[in-house]
Amino acid sequence: MTPNTLSAYTRGGTPWIPTYVESIDPRRCIGCGRCFKVCSRAVLALVEREASESLEEDDDWDDDAETTALMTVRDPMDCIGCGACGRTCPKGCFTFSTP
């Protein structure tokens, strides 16, 4: 850990180092919005994408839809490093970084 790295301890005394959202894999995102709902800092945004865009094969994907939603990182500088978005993502779309 570098001298400028922020770290803290949980109530139970476990060391905690924040991990900041870096990117979301658009091929894995199903646009469920769970991450958007848990983010208290408005770091994420829901945007439309065409159904023809590349997606991983998945039963959650509606083949009849012409457009669907996709989460993107709106403002990574607002991220506080809590990791709630990644923990709620059913597809593991998030990439995080430490300072």
From TrEMBL:
Keyword Membrane: no
Reported cofactor(s): [4Fe-4S] cluster
Family annotation (InterPro entries): 4Fe4S_Fe-S-bd, 4Fe4S_Fe_S_CS, FdIII_4_nif, Fe-S_Ferredoxin
Ribonucleoprotein is among the record's keywords: no
Pfam families: Fer4_7
All residue ranges annotated as the 4Fe-4S ferredoxin-type domain in the record: 20-49, 69-99
Keyword vocabulary terms for this entry: 4Fe-4S, Electron transport, Iron, Iron-sulfur, Metal-binding, Nitrogen fixation, Repeat, Transport
Listed GO MF terms: 4 iron, 4 sulfur cluster binding; metal ion binding
Record function comment: Ferredoxins are iron-sulfur proteins that transfer electrons in a wide variety of metabolic reactions.
Protein name (database record): Ferredoxin III
Record organism: Thermochromatium tepidum ATCC 43061
